[in-house]
Design goal:
The complex is a heterodimer. Helix content of chain A is 50%, strand content 10%. Chain A is α+β, with helices and mostly antiparallel strands. Chain A folds into four domains: 7-210, no CATH class; 232-397, no CATH class; 429-517, no CATH class; 542-708, no CATH class. Chain A has an eight-stranded mixed β-sheet, with helices on both faces. In chain A, a hairpin with a 2-residue loop joins strand 11 and strand 12. Chain B has one domain (18-303): 3-Layer(aba) Sandwich (Rossmann fold). The radius of gyration of chain B is 20 Å and the shape is globular. Classes of the chains: A alpha+beta, B alpha/beta.
Chain lengths: 715, 305
Amino acid sequence: MNSAQDIEIHEFSTGIIPERMADGSWVSRGFTGQYMNVTLDPIPHEIERSIANKEFAVAEGAFSDRPTMIGRIISSATGEQWSVVALITKGQDEKGRSASLYRFFLAQSPDGLAKILAWVESQQKHKKTIVFNPFDRKQLGQPNTSNVLPSTEPPSDPPSLFQITPFVIKPGENFSPSQINAFAKLKVCSNKQPVAWAYNVEALEQPGRFQVILPASDAAVIRIQRALSTQSTISAAVLDEESIKSAIKGLINSSQVKPEFVQTLLANLPHVEAAIANSSCTKNFWYKLFDGQGATNALKQKIYSPQMVRLLTLRAVLLPETLLTFLDWLSPELNKSKNDNYQTSLDFQSRLQQQLALDAEYQILQQIDAGIVIVLSKRLQEQIPGEFAQWLFLSKESLWAQERLIEVLRPPLQGSEPSIAQKSIANTFLRDRASRGKVAEFLEELGQRNLIKKNYEISASLYEASAYFYHLGDQQVPTEILRRANLSTKERTQNVWGQRVQRKITFIESLDSFIEENSLWFIVLFVLIGTLLLLDLWFQRNQTLNDRGREEILETSPNPQTKQGDPISVAPLTGTANRSGSQDSAVSLVPSEVESSAKAQFEKTTRVAIQKIIDESETRNFSMQEIEKIMNGILSTSGETLDFSVVAGETNDESATSEWIRAIYRYQQVRKVSPLNGVLGTLPENQDGCFSTTCMLFDDVMEALKAQDPGNPGV
Amino acid sequence: MFERLKQQLNTVKSELEIPQSNAVIRVIGDRASGKTTYMAALARWPNANPASLVQSVTPINEVGEALIAKAQNVLEQGLELEPSDLEADAEEVNDYSFSIILKRQFSLRSSHTNLSGIPIQLNISCKDYAGEFFSDLLYQANDPKLKSYLADCMQATGIMFLVDGSTRKDADYAIGIEKFLKTLEPYDNASELRQVALVLTKCEQPDLWDKRHQPKRLADARYPQVCSKLQAWQAGTSRKIDFFATSAFGIIGTQFPEANSKQLTRSRGGVTSILKDPKRWRPFGLVAPIYWLCTGARHKQLDED
């Protein structure tokens, strides 16, 4: 009957197929892949994980004649504390090969290690085997019981340099397992780590995970110290390294993505902030894990096997700062026509995504978003080639695909805490106008590429994002961007991603808007223009009447030659006899003030205009005589010849000048040209109505010359 | 402009890069047939012959590197490697990754003497299953472990079936390999080439060493039933077999060669031995089956000494 002091000591051993030999000894005929002589089912998960993490494993090679012992306290997730002692001995198989065989004892008690050791010692005293023995059969549910109390003696003085962890005791010092356990407990008091010690060991797989180690020999000290120097002790206690390693191995070695591996990684995700901080232990732990699978070697030696492509893809997902290195490594593959590796990575990403999407919290997004920000930032600074960004964002299977890019760039909802990526975006892309403009252009470019590929939906989303950044950059969005984003191109302003954005307006629209804003002025302007138009119409009417009058003059000419088709068909405006009564009354003498004014400007106006008419006529191959004759015919009042030497500037005869002025004045009267000033105007100096006298005269001269010489092609 | 230049540069670079061939290999075979020793000798690649075609063998991952330590700490100390534990899950089995660079690339289709001066890189990922898989597990139809191992085998592009050349277990192995190939059959994808290399190990033994250059004849003579099962399997679509003779320990001396090993036991199940002279340790023929599994072609020079 068990007393209250009794403890249950369960056990299990390495599973082998034993074969009894003639001499009573036994050999192994192979491993079974499961434990034997088990008294507890199931074996607590945490203990199995500790074994899988090689925390009880002795390294292959040297063996000690005496059993090796390893003691640990393992806490379960539910707070139970298991004390586990492993006894490791050398066994042989039928081929003579040696193998390390383990017998584990465990008790559910925090001070169980001492109790197990006390029991083991008592068993040894009674010559009972407590080392691995396949024929020491055990039944499930029938643990060993012990009422042996551990020694209450205080441990002997701890050796010097005890503060170092793990402390490797010099061999030869005659400590018992119980004393080593007591030393380990003392160390635990100072460093708060779980108790873990190794007694009489030649080599350990994980020497960094112990408090105290007692090597079996001097050679063992060297081996253990060497192993310690290459091992890191970080994070060992908090992370189930082997399960993460298994997950990574499982993911990279198979074209399938098993959900349990993804879950393991998600449960142990490296924290993005920690990963960004260079000094982070967690980061080193993860780097070491990936390097353990060959990440650095693959990069350096350019090994493009499917496993390495998957490994580096996974590393780029979990450690976003390695994404650029990954892209750089894969880039030679991007240029190849047959890029299997590129496709391997995409297939892997696609399968990974299916699993990641099943994760309710989708925790890995932080890592993916961080990668997006890094690549976008480098691309906008033109520090990486465009093809990197295109491959990453445009590939449909990509974890960093454009849909995610859009989500990352979208501003956080009001009141919600921005993500790490969003904060990073605020500090980089939103910092200045130029950066915002660059993001807008980059998104526009992606949108355009999708448009070419006829991916209309995503193209519109990218244009919408581009519109948002155009707004942030220029305060206005080009209409074309809005049109391609399937947004309104009519509205001046509209809501895009929670921002009121303004459409960039065209020239016509800006004019329209100007008119709207200055409507009163425009009304005045229209009235003025209207008045001018009316005036113009009135003048045109008068001109038509004049033309009619002129036709009448030509028709009533007394010159018989005209009627007979005489080339000189111009009727001179001479004598009242040639005009109707009304016309006669209209022709009067030139008022003196008009005459003096016309005289004053004769040099600059009339003379120049006549000269111009002469020049123009001459260029049409008419002689000066013909021209003079025609002009006299049109302008001369009394058959007197106008003096052309005044026009030529050869003389300055005042009476001749007056004759010209009077002739012009009358011409203006007859032709009803306004103003009636006796002046032939010139352009552009004189833009008033007298220029129309010149034009009219020129037309008359030309018409007369034409009538005189119909064969002249110059007219 | 910058991008176009960079692209051109990359194209040039990629043209200059060493062509690579990959293989995912599963090593199966009886217990103590020399699977782990094969891998350790390959990783260690001791006393490389300067005239050898193999320029380098580099472990890529930590378990590959650990093999070198195993070779140094165990084999070179005149000790035997421990038997590999039968993992409950094939995912847990060590997956050794190596990169092997051969000095020159040889034409794969035409003659193998077409020297182009360009090296070739073989990238392999290789798991050696505990011998128990072949000797016991295959016969336990509903064992979840077996399912896990078979699923893992599906990832392989090539199988190396290692047989201790000195065993007399032809009938046993014939049953074993037939069972193995039959179990894999339902998962077989006819469009993908499956290769099985029958690799005779421990050929430093004098009776094997003499015939190392005729591996097929050697295999036919010693393992007729195994060969016949493999031939029958090869009749199916997209299947290929070939034969190789190897020695992880090699021999010492050229005029009067002797095995560089000390025999510990000898039985129907083969020999167990340890390395005799680590300083003159030079394995034989280890890369030949890997090259064949990677490229689908046999390399004459790799079969030579």
